[in-house]
Amino acid sequence: MLPVFLREGADEPVPLQSMPGVVQHSRESLRQAAREAVEVGLGGIMLFGVPRHRDATGSGADDPDGILNVGLRDLRDEVGDDLVVMADLCLDEFTDHGHCGVLDDRGRVDNDATLDRYASMALAQADAGAHVLGLSGMMDGQTGHVRRALDAVRRDDVVLLAYAVKYASAFFGPFREAVESTLEGDRTTYQQDPGNLVEALREVRLDVEEGADMVMVKPGLPYLDVLSQVARSVQVPVAAYQVSGEYAMVEAAAAAGMIDRDRAILETLTSLRRAGAQVVLAYWATEVARSL
Ligand code: PBG
């Protein structure tokens, strides 16, 4: 599956310095990327919005005219059901402080207040036509809360992909440029400790109990052991996300003549598959699918 960025107000695609070869799309170039994805036989596309304005509660996220929801409508209009259309369901692209949730009066992420924001986003994304919602915010209880909100309006057809295992990782670095987000503080109160495997398995179990249809492990390459254990422990499809820093690392080394780019790309993707991923999100998806 191909992750893509859509920038509000862009007339042309905008290249990203920290991810050479990846762009922030305009609405038109996004449609073209989706058509290409269908042509080469990709399974799906994951959309991230890059809004022009941000505020404390991330109000652009559940606005039907917000950039992410506009992009979802464009995508469904373009590809119908030929490609699985997935939406990132998280607030960090839309908040001015860059956190994945809303803050309390002491400046800490307020888990339960954030759940209501996620429910509202979920309804907006379902209305905009998303087949799958990618719950990436790492709030406790998010999967169950969103599932109940969708059930209440009889949208049990919408699939939930829970980012059950998401580590507080340096490998998300280039993503910040991609969505133009600056983070105040860090995410260690809601993302996971890289040294902890047991918590990953517990998070997966909770998400499946809460109604997740698929679970994700993220990042990929530094967490192959986690991916492998998760894949063996659940009865739902398991996805792996090869994140921005993994992409940048290979591209930078290849550009410096240090490694064979094409072989390195295939090798990293193969390792995710070998470790047990049934779904892989990768910024190289279109290129690789074409060459295969
Ligand atoms: C949250 C989200 C992030 C990524 C995907 N969804 C950022 C974060 O949690 O810091 C990172 C993806 C990547 O690095 O490629 N909206």
Automatic annotation (TrEMBL):
Task: Show the Gene3D superfamilies listed in the entry.
Answer: Aldolase class I
Q: Which UniProt keywords apply?
A: Heme biosynthesis, Lyase, Porphyrin biosynthesis
- Protein name as catalogued: Delta-aminolevulinic acid dehydratase
Q: In which pathway does it act?
A: Porphyrin-containing compound metabolism; protoporphyrin-IX biosynthesis; coproporphyrinogen-III from 5-aminolevulinate: step 1/4
EC id? 4.2.1.24
State the superkingdom: Bacteria
Q: Which reaction does it catalyse?
A: 2 5-aminolevulinate = porphobilinogen + 2 H2O + H(+)
Describe the protein's quaternary organization and the partners it interacts with.
Answer: Homooctamer.
Q: What does this protein do?
A: Catalyzes an early step in the biosynthesis of tetrapyrroles. Binds two molecules of 5-aminolevulinate per subunit, each at a distinct site, and catalyzes their condensation to form porphobilinogen.
Q: Give the UniProt family note.
A: Belongs to the ALAD family.
The first-level EC class reads lyase
| Family matches, as PANTHER family | DELTA-AMINOLEVULINIC ACID DEHYDRATASE (PTHR11458)
